[in-house]
Amino acid sequence: MRKKILLQTPTGMHDILPEEQKYYQKIFDIVSEIAKFYNFQRIETPILERTELFSTSIGLATDIVQKEMFSFRTKGGDSLTLRPEGTAPIARAFIQHGMQNLPQPVKLWYFGPFFRYEHPQAGRYRQFWQFGFEVLGAKNPVIDAQIVQIFFNIFQELKLKNVLVKVNSIGDKTCRPYYKKLLSHYLKYRIEELCENCRRRLKENPLRVLDCKEEKCQRVIHGAPQIIDHLCEECRAHFREFLEYLEELGLPYQLDTKLVRGLDYYTRTVFEFFEESEKGKEVGAIAGGGRYDNLIKMLGKQDVPGMGGAGGVERIISLIKEKAIKWPKEKKVEVFLAQLGNLAKRKSLVLIENFRKEGIPVFESLDRDSLKAQLRLADKFGVKYTLILGQKEVLEGTILLRDMVSGQQEIIKLDKILPEIKKRLKKS
Ligand code: AMP
């Protein structure tokens, strides 16, 4: 029994096996290409941060901080936490490295693993990968629209055709406190109709009730006052301009007045991306983000606005698989090098390096001694050509070139084999 547990990944965590890597790689490639185009610089922060970084910025009353952090004490007595999200660490890095002295805005992107102690279910893991984009030092709503456009572009490139972005504004410190009071008042009268969790949320952060998916809470939420009707003048203008930019870009957005996103550091614009699942499987949001104009001030002294978002790699992959999205095939390996004997092994090692320098991929099985076994392998790989190098060939300075389709074999001078293979691959 103990052994069985020993041989399994921890709950909610998974290996990314070789056959899965192509999905991660593809998403990474698209994200990094798009980041380059929009002039974002890559940043990677440590997997661990001081616990207070998250409790201060994300908010003590949030699910992430209350229930979902992997926190522990080090031998030196520090409380550290496996990062549950990427924005707070980047804000920390911005302050720590004096990035306010760089030309503003500072545009950063990342791609890495994140950790939340959640109840594992479809699309919800305890270790998952996110990519994210952050713009620090810009407060104009044109940036909000550009961030949404960037995520949209990534999903287009990934061939997710039915993406929809939900947007809302949650105001700022001028208008949100009043709205919170109004909402609390409304919910208090209906407390009996709310679920257990929402009764707690009502005390700590009534906005979070709007996030609840329980049917009975949904009924209450339906009639609740909407923040959009209570924005201050500046927030209303910011949101209006943001929507105008989205219109200009022709992005398929939907106003969702119940979208609040749970974290304390958000101000004004919030957004979440969804993709229709053909099987009706609920994978949840594939990306989300928003503006965080107070975050840097919460952590340091400077008043630096920010805007960004993050995409969930596993959820995107599950949609790609479900929709059986195919990408153009990668370059196939067309050459197998078989060898016989120690002398041939030595020459083969060098020959493989020469192939690599020429950019021609080649399969081999250097640890095998039987020619039959190697030819079987070459057959399995489906290569066009197999090169056979034995003791006799090495001594004569030649190599056998076997066409795997016709079965014909030719003797080629060893120092001519590279140009010969190049020529043949070009022809085909
Ligand atoms: P969030 O900041 O929580 O909205 O996270 C951004 C994106 O990461 C979400 O839209 C999801 O696609 C993904 N994500 C968040 N939490 C998880 C999780 N526990 N497992 C897998 N993906 C997640």
In short:
This protein has 428 residues and is an alpha+beta fold. The chain has 2 domains: 2-175 and 231-322, BirA Bifunctional Protein, domain 2 (2-Layer Sandwich); 335-422, Rossmann fold. Helices cover 39% and strands 20% of the residues.
Describe this structure in words.
- With 428 residues, this protein is α+β, with helices and mostly antiparallel strands.
- It folds into two domains: 266 residues, Bira Bifunctional Protein, Domain 2 (BirA Bifunctional Protein, domain 2, 2-Layer Sandwich), CATH 3.30.930.10; 88 residues, Rossmann fold, CATH 3.40.50.800.
- The chain contains 16 helices and 16 strands.
- The strands form three sheets. An eight-stranded mixed beta sheet has the order 1-5-6-11-10-9-7-8, sandwiched between helices.
- The two termini are 55 Å apart.
- The mean pLDDT is 93.
- The structure holds adenosine monophosphate.
- Adenosine monophosphate binds next to strand 6, strand 10, strand 11 and helix 12.
